[in-house]
Each structure stands twice: as C-alpha cells, then as structure tokens.
Amino acid sequence: MKKKMKVKGNHVIFSLVFLVLGYMMAFSYHLTQGESDKSAMTGKQWERDLELRNQLVELEEKNRALQKELNEKQENVLEIEKELSQEAQVYFNLAEDAEKYRMHLGKVKVKGEGVEVTLADGDYNPDEENINNYIVHEHHVFKVVNELYISGAAAVSINGQRLSHSSYVVCNGPVIEVDGYQHPAPFVITAIGDADVLSSALNLTGGVKDTLVDENIQFTLEKNDEIIMEPLLGT
C-alpha cells in the first residue's frame, strides 16, 4: 500500500514539473515571437523614417533652388525698375524742356510772379535841340528785354504783346513796332519769373536802370505776384 502511494506521489511531482516546463517553453516561445515581431516592426519603421528623411532632404534642396531662382528674378526686377526709373527721369526732363521751349516760343499760356517795367519819354526840355535825346527808342527796350531774359524770365511781353524767339522791335517815329504791330509810349515790359531776381538784375548799380535814367528815360519797376500771358496766335 505504501509503495503504491509513493509511485502515485512521484507521478504527481512529474506532472507538475512537466506542466511548469511546458508553461515556461510556451512563454519563452511567445516572448521570442513577440521580440521577432517587434524587430520586424522596428525595421519597417526605420525604413519609413529613412524614406521620409530622404523626401525632406529632396524638398529642402528644391526649396533652396527655388529661393535662388527667386533671388535672381528679384534682382532682374530691380534692374528693370532702375532702368525704368532712369527712363522716366529722362522723359520727365524732356517734358520739362519741351514745356520750357513752348513758353519761350509763346505756344502755351503762362502764369506766375514777375515784374512790370515801364519806360516813358523824358520830360520835355525846350533847351534840348534834339528831341530824340529824351524819347524811348528800340535799343532802350532791348536793354530791358535782354536783361530780363538773361536773368531767367520765362516769358516777356511789350504792352501786352507776347514776344517769341523770332520777335523783332523797330523804331517808327514816335512809336515802336513789335512784330509789325505799332505801340506808342509808354512801353510796359512785363516778365514772368523770380520777381526778386529780375528786380535785382535791373537795379544793379551801373546797370540797365542807371543807363536808361542817364539817357533821360523815365524808368519804373513793380513786382507782381501773379502775371498771366496768353499764348501767341497765328504762326
């Protein structure tokens, strides 16, 4: 009886041992399989990361190339804008010159500050044998007109008649002719320009005013804040 109990006890022990070994082998296999799966997943993830990294590097290279191209195009635009700016300045200068020439030619209406110079015959002197010694002649008018143009006058008129680049003034007895139109004394010479400059130029010591006064011509000068001259008609 005792011998049977002993055998039976050994079977139980062996059974427990085999059970534990089986469990350990199953756990080990499961663990090994998990590690293998994990290793396989890690390899795929690494390949995916590498692919994404390569794509990022490629995109960065394309971005740098596009940025370089953009910089070059911006430089070209700046060069074009600079050329256009220079051309615009040239056209502006040409337009200014054209406007100035039109003013001198009397082709456009002109308005601005300026001066009015009046030349009148000197007082009658019965002791003076030659009447020409106290009346205004064309050379007196020329002195004033030339000084005004030299001092920067943009436009000049005589008794309201605008002068042009081809105008002429001649004496005809007691009157003068401006481009064929007769004007009696006194002669009002009007000029548009910097009033202070024009006035100072005419009033210089020993200048135009002093010369005319010495020749018995009555000389008066006034500054004017606004003078308007209409364009020449006809030719």
From TrEMBL:
<keyword id="KW-0175">Coiled coil</keyword>
<keyword id="KW-0472">Membrane</keyword>
<dbReference type="InterPro" id="IPR010273">
    <property type="entry name" value="DUF881"/>
</dbReference>
<protein>
    <submittedName>
        <fullName>Uncharacterized protein YlxW (UPF0749 family)</fullName>
    </submittedName>
</protein>
<feature type="coiled-coil region">
    <location>
        <begin position="49"/>
        <end position="90"/>
    </location>
</feature>
<comment type="similarity">
    <text>Belongs to the UPF0749 family.</text>
</comment>
<feature type="transmembrane region" description="Helical">
    <location>
        <begin position="12"/>
        <end position="31"/>
    </location>
</feature>
<keyword id="KW-1133">Transmembrane helix</keyword>
<dbReference type="Pfam" id="PF05949">
    <property type="entry name" value="DUF881"/>
</dbReference>
<keyword id="KW-0812">Transmembrane</keyword>
